[in-house]
Structure formats: C-alpha cells, structure tokens
Design brief:
The protein is an alpha/beta fold. The protein has helices at residues 11-23, 50-54, 107-119, 144-157, 190-197, 213-225, 253-260, 269-273, 276-288, 315-334; strands at residues 2-5, 27-32, 37-42, 59-63, 83-85, 88-90, 96-100, 124-126, 161-164, 179-182, 203-206, 231-235, 265-267, 293-297. It contains ten helices and 14 strands. The protein is elongated, with a radius of gyration of 23 Å. Bound molecules: phosphoenolpyruvate (PEP) and manganese (II) ion. Residues 102, 128, 132, 183-185, 206, 236, 271 line the site of phosphoenolpyruvate (PEP).
C-alpha cells in the first residue's frame, strides 16, 4: 500500500500516523519526490482501512498494490482449486453441468426432470426449496419439504443436489444436501457467508446483481476465512442499462476470474437472459470461453412452472444442448489445431 502525502504536512500529524502504522507491525519506506512525498507500507495491509487513512488531513490518496482478497487470490495459490460435490469434480479441467427446475414443486415434476437431465448428461441436480422472490406475493418455495423431494430424486438418480439457503436458520434442513447455493441477492449477506464458511460443504456463490469482481471475491473470502475453501463461483448475469434481457451475461468474468482466482467459475445462462431461447447461445459462448461448468434451469413442463418458466428448457431442448456443449468442451480441452 502506498500513501501519498499532501504538501506541507503538519509534522506532528505525520509522526502520529507513522507511529500508529509501526505499532500495528508495518514497515515504512518513506520517499521524497519533487512534488509529493510518499510512504510505502510493507506487511499484510488487508486489515488497513484505505478510506480511513485517506480521510486524514495530511493524506492526498492511498493506493493498494495488492488485491484485498488473499485466500481466493491466485497469486498465493497458483493451482486451480477442484471442488468435490458428492463425488462430482468441478474446476482444474473438470467440467460439470448442474440442471433442474428453478423451484421444487411436486414429486412428479422433480423426478421427471431429474431423470431427464441425468439422461442428457447433467451431473448435479439443482432445485430451489427456499426461493428469493422479488415479490412477497409470488410462490416462496416449498421449504423443508422441497428439500425432501430433492433427496428423493437424489436417491433415485444418484445425482448430488445443490439448493439455495437464504438464511442461517435454514441450514438445519441442509444436512444431506451436497452443495449450498448462496443466491445473487445474498452475495453480501455476511452473516450467512460466515455460517456456511464454518461448514464442510461445498458452496455455489452466485455473483450479486451489481457486484464487481473484487466484491464477489471478497464474498468468497468471507467463506474461506472461516475455513471452508470449497467454493464454486457462478456468474448469472449482471444488471446493465439493457432492458431487452433480464440481465447481461458477463462472459468476461470467465478469463478474468481465472486470472484473479484459483476458484472454479460456472455460468448460469438461464437467469442471465431470462429467456429459454437465449440459453443455448449463451451456454455455447460460456463453454467456448472456458467456463468450468454450467447451471441451467430445466422443467418437465415450463408453461406450468411456478417460478422462472419463461427461461426454463424442456428436457428435449436440454438434451440437444448438452450434446453440443460436450462436443464443444472437447475442442476447448484439446485445442483448435
Ligand atoms: C436460482 O438459481 O434459482 C436463483 C434464484 O438464482 P439467482 O440468485 O442467481 O437469481
Ligand atoms: Mn430461477
């Protein structure tokens, strides 16, 4: 971290800032330039509040040299993290497709969809039992009994399951759920992040609607700082000025997250565009762009879905898509030449 000082600083205030930093264990490297004097701070500056130092009268600006995320940072952990979800690996060359309905509705719906997505090559079953809906009057999910239905489908198909937890009080129902999903709206629910950080269960951390890469990785850092390093990041579309689509899928996130972090990143084309006809091109773009997997909403009867029907694929559309995704994945793995 580098502190740039203002001209003609008050010597007593400068001495007090230096003393404070030295007492906190930092090594200081002052340098005098023609126009500015600066102080380089050496040490783990993650705990320093940049804005607090910047608010001092003697300080012109404070610049961070290193990113504030440490455990999620590729610089300190060069090898790809491989996350294991009930025996299914994601990251480090392992590609996984999570698929299933937006929300769990009936035994027939979950079982029919689960059988179909497995047949088409999905390796993890998704389904929401606790639903974060924009309107309090919309279907809020089945709650714990929805998780029971997912477990039934897991038993029959052998597919591990991923489901969203919205609040720490719901964690008691997730013992047999293989992966915990933190939804976009909860990406900065720090209490929830810390609680799932204490568990030994993989976490699917969705990107917040307006979150920067750094905010997203700092959310992962919250989970990792409590001891849980099994995290898969999921880009699900961000809010932009565009109104034709529900959100805008940020494909740039794939190479950028791979550069910044060792954590795997999967893409959710369903929530990105909000339209079933966009799922195929966005899935192919994501696969071609090097994503570690996909999360796709599939419903056995989308027209009757209680949640997100317009973006759900029918099983036959999903099967046609996975065939092409796997073919494209082969090319990504082997190279074009
Ligand atoms: C979901 O996966 O069903 C969901 C609600 O996703 P998001 O948090 O990305 O909106
Ligand atoms: Mn949904």
């Amino acid at each position: 971290m580098i502190i740039t000082l203002k001209d003609n600083v008050n010597p007593a205030e400068l001495a007090s800032l230096k003393e404070r930093l030295i007492n906190e264990g930092f090594q200081l490297v002052p340098a005098q330039g023609t126009h500015y004097s600066i102080i380089g701070i050496i040490g783990d500056t993650a705990s320093l509040d940049k804005r607090q130092i910047e608010s001092l009268d003697i300080v012109e600006k404070v610049s961070r040299i290193q990113e504030p995320f440490k455990k999620a940072n590729r610089k300190f952990h060069p090898d790809d993290t491989i996350v294991d979800v009930g025996g299914v690996k994601i990251g480090g060359g392992h590609f996984a497709i999570m698929a299933g309905p937006c929300s769990v509705e009936t035994p027939e719906q979950v079982l029919a969809t689960a059988r179909a997505v497995k047949e088409a090559g999905a390796t993890i079953l998704r389904g929401g039992a606790f639903k974060p809906r924009t309107s309090p009057y919309s279907f809020q999910g089945m709650g714990p009994s929805g998780l029971e239905l997912l477990l039934l489908a897991k038993k029959e198909t052998g597919l591990p399951i991923v489901s969203e937890v919205m609040d720490p009080s719901q964690l008691q129902y997730f013992d047999e759920v293989d992966m915990l999903q933190i939804g976009a709206r909860n990406m900065q629910n720090f209490t929830l992040l810390k609680e799932v950080g204490k568990l030994k269960k993989p976490v699917l951390l969705k990107r917040g609607l307006c979150a920067t890469y750094e905010e997203w990785l700092m959310a992962a850092e919250y989970i990792m700082s409590e001891g849980n390093e099994q995290i898969v990041l999921c880009e699900r579309g961000i809010r932009t000025f565009e109104t034709k689509t529900r959100n805008t899928l940020d494909v740039t996130a794939i190479p950028m997250i791979h550069e910044l972090s060792h954590l795997p990143i999967i893409m959710d084309p369903s929530h990105a565009a909000g339209m079933s006809r966009m799922v195929r091109p966005l899935s192919l773009a994501s696969t071609g762009g090097g994503a570690d997997g996909l999360m796709i909403e599939v419903h056995n009867d989308p027209a009757k879905a209680l949640c997100d029907g317009p973006q759900a694929l029918r099983p036959d559309q999903f099967a046609a898509l996975t065939k092409d995704v796997f073919a494209l994945r082969q090319i990504v793995e082997n190279g074009l030449a």
